[in-house]
Each structure stands twice: as C-alpha cells, then as structure tokens.
Design goal:
The chain is α/β, with parallel strands linked by helices. The protein contains 18 helices and 18 strands. The protein has helices at residues 9-14, 31-39, 41-49, 57-66, 134-149, 174-193, 212-215, 217-225, 287-295, 321-331, 334-359, 366-383, 389-405, 435-458, 476-482, 485-499, 519-534, 548-563; strands spanning 29-30, 87-96, 101-111, 114-121, 156-161, 166-171, 240-244, 250-254, 257-262, 265-270, 274-280, 284-285, 300-303, 309-313, 508-511, 514-517, 536-538, 545-547. Strands 1, 2, 3, 4, 5 and 6 form a six-stranded mixed sheet that branches. The protein has a four-stranded mixed sheet with strand order 7-11-13-14. The chain has a four-stranded mixed sheet with strand order 10-9-8-12. It is elongated and about 90 Å long.
Length: 576
Amino acid sequence: MSGETYMPDHQQLSLGLPPPPAGSDTPLIPARMVNEWVYCPRLAYLEWVEGEWADSGDTAQGKRVHARVDEGSGHLPGPDELGEDMRQARSVTLSSERLGVIAKMDVVETSDGTAMPVDFKKGKRPHVAAGAYEPERVQVCVQAMILEDNGYQVEQGALWYAGSRERVPVVLDRELRARTLDAISGLRAAAAAGRRPPPLQSSPKCPRCSLAGICLPDETNLFHKGYPPRPLNPADDPALPLYVQTPGARLRKSGEQLIVETEGEKVELPMIDVSQVALFGPVSVTTPALHALMRAEIPVSWFSTGGWLLGHTVGTGTGNVLVREAQYRAAFDTGRSLVLSRDLVAAKIRNSRTMLRRNWRADRGTEAREATLTRLKHVAERATQATQTQELLGIEGEAAAVYFAQFENMLTVEGQKGEAVFSFSKRNRRPPADPVNALLSLAYALVTRLFTGTLAATGLDPYMGLYHRPRPGRPALALDLMEPFRPIVADSCVIQVINNGEVKLDDFVWNGPACALKPGGRKAFIAAFERRLEQETTHPLFGYRVSMRRLIDVQARLLARHLQGEIPTYPHYLPR
C-alpha cells in the first residue's frame, strides 16, 4: 500500500472534506433528493433509487410556484465576468463532479463579484430559530457548493417563501456544510448498497407524505415493532378505468383531454381522470393518444370482442430494478417459490369456502353445505403441507372441482314471469359453453388486467411467476397474486349480477359451442365489476378500511416488500 492514510467517509465529513468523487458511471444526485434525504431517508431512496412518485395537492402547488422560474430567463455570467451590477438568472442547471451532485437552481443572483442561489418554496416562512427547516437549508447549501465548484464566490444563500412573500437568508457555516456532505454521502451509500432505509416510526411527517401509500411505513413497522398502523393511506386515486367497447369507436386526444368518438357521438374526459384504458373489439387509437397514455404511465389493455385479454400497451414503467431482481431470485429458488405458492393456493381455497358459506341459498339444504365447507377446509390444510408444485396443482384442482360443483347453489333458481334461469354444472372455457362460464371468463380477464397493471406499477414483472410458470404472453405473477381474489372479486361479481337481474339470459349470444355476452350485457357486467372494486373492506391485518381497488395495490406492494426481505411474510387477504 502507498503511504497515503485512509480515512472512512464519516471521518472525512467530520473534517469538512467532500465525500469520495463519484465514478464516471455514477449518476449525479439531484439537490432536491439531498433535501429529501435529510427530511426522510426512505422517501429520498424511494424517489431517486426506485423511481417512485405520487402527486398530491402539495406537489401540485409546488409545481405552480415553480412554473415561472422554470421557464428560465436572464444569463448567468461566468465567474470572471461578474460585475458590481445586480443580475438575476432563472432556472440555472449546474453540477459538481467532485461532489457527485446536480441542481436546477430557481434563481441565481449575482452582484459585487459574488453569486447567491435563491430557492423558491411554497407556503409561509416557518418560525424556527434558523429561519428555515434543515432540509431546505441543506438544499440551498448544495446549490452554493455547486456554484463554488464552478468557480463562483458564494457568501450566502436564500429561500423565498411564496405563501408569505418573505426571503430568508441561509448562512453557509461549517456545521451546515458538514451536514450537507453527510447527507450526500449517506444517500450515495444507500443507493450503492441497494438497501431501502427503514420507515420512520409514528412520525407526524407520514400523514402528509404523497408517498405514504407506496412507502407503507406503519404497515411495515407492524411486522417489526408491533405498532398498530394509522390509516395513513391516501384517499383512493379518483382516476378510474376507461372502457371503450362500441365497434368502430376511435380514441384520440386534444390537449390534456381524451376524446372517444363513435358514430354521431363524442365524449371528452380529462386524461388525469383515467387510470387505465380497456379496448374491446374493433376500436382504434390515434398515435398521439397512445404516446400520451404511455408518457402518463396509463396502461392500455386490448380485449377481443368476446372479452378475451389479448395484451397490453405500456410506457417504460417504473425504474425500480431492485424489486425485480428480488422477484427473479425468489422465482428461481424452488423452495421459496413453493412456500409462497402453498400460501397462495391455501388462501384461494379458504376464500372460495368463504364465498360458499356466505352465499349458499337457504333453500338448498344445510347437509351438503356443511359437508362441502368441511372438505374445503381440509383441502386448504393439505395445500399448506404440499411438498412439490405438481402435488399443489392437484390439490388446487381438487378444491376447484368441489367448489364449482356447488357453485349453482349460490345462484337464484326462481324465474320471474316464466323467465328462464341460469344453470351451472361445471367450469369450462376456451370457449365458455354457457352464460355463467362466459361471465366467469370475462370476470377473470378483467381481474387479470387489473393485477397486471398493478404489479407493473409496483415495479414487479407481471410475467415472471412464482406458482404459475412463465410462458410467452402469460402474466404468470398476475395469475399468482389474483388467485385469492378470484372468488372474492370475480365470482362474487358474477353471483351479484345474476341474482340481482343485472344480466339476463337474453344478454348472451351463441356462436356454435361458444357463448358470449352481447355489448349491453358486457357493459352492465363491467359496471358491476367496477362497483365491486369501489366497495370498502376492512384489511384483516391492518384494521383500516380501504376500497378493494386500493387493497389490491397495497397487497402488491406488500409482496414486493416481502420479496426484498423487508417484511418476513406476505399477509394474504382472508375476509371472514
């Protein structure tokens, strides 16, 4: 070794020295992320390393505050060109390779040979001893140090609070500089290690955080600290799926509006109100509309006229590679995949049993009901003890046979005014041969679309399964995770539309042996399906109430947390 003395990062920082220089392949850390790291390390990691983001009222207000400065104006003279006159340059982007950081500065003011960064903030100036909170002061310090590394003399920085229209000076003392260097080093080390920082514990910062529903701080802490979670999850996203099923319809965009045109009719709706797009049959989409949907990360799902899911069109998706790495490791680990698969199948059987227990018609007799419930209970217990995937597949098939043999006992048999009634004897598909099977097939296709989009938004690969093995075009992980939800979401919706008379036998059409819904019947079923997703339920582990749509998102994120080792088990949704 050479005669140079090695000093760990924390010792370098204690001396006020910069962290080690970033390598050529190391991305520069945005100054805003350094701010987030000081505020909450987990938030910074989720946003910068995992690429997570969620808009809120606060973030929207912040964008409005920055709208003017982001347009850019003025010219920032070079360090040797500074004069005594006062100048302003807006939206200035500079970086420091020494520190490994980059900043888009709202305003840089120059006068008397010095430069001063001014950062804009929404809201009012806080009444604290330092004049501003530490994360905001650190962000200004990053900008000042970048200016210094680019040859400028910087004596102080400033914060401008739009809410109170006040400017607060930021003193660039040794303590603030050391804190800034420590934050840069900490974020870089966490990114290099690929390890998500633990969530804050019972922090008042969490309820207002736009990423609370992604971070799941209290839910994660429940597994390690035992603290009961607060209902931190933000309200459900008001955006809803857009279904287009009129033959010959055309989807296009104009500005920020999506426009659906059919013969003699035009419907407009804001793109911000759309979460997913589902297109049935011969429906066309313009290229600008498709590009806008991909940029907004709004998936487009393509269905046949009869309701078969054909595929998806998505944008580049989340940049969270780490969660997919963990997923692939689990998928190639036969033992771990089997453990997860056993729990998935057992949960599906238990939820099938719950559906029969809840919906068995009172006039069908109790003896068969109790015998069926007892058998399903025993089959679920066997599923948890399976030693091979093939054995588990056989157990799942046995449970399905028992369940669907009694499925008709959940359907109304009394016709009104001589109407024919629905009947069901066994599950069949490709093609479904009767109305009940046609409804079940459409329901499962809709659930598959929902889980495929949800998993992709979480960063997981919907096509790499743990129980269902991958094959081209098969969203195997979506099929895995939806197993416990088939009876609770899909089957319950089928039972509801039949028993409530929302779909009738004349809503179906036969083409040889195949049975399919007519457009009117499909529209009625999709409406019922969306209502089911909006119904609130109590999470059996966390105790708070959320919509079924939001619960599915929570479950997908919990699976990602489990695969990455952040929580020891994956908690299944098992309603009573």
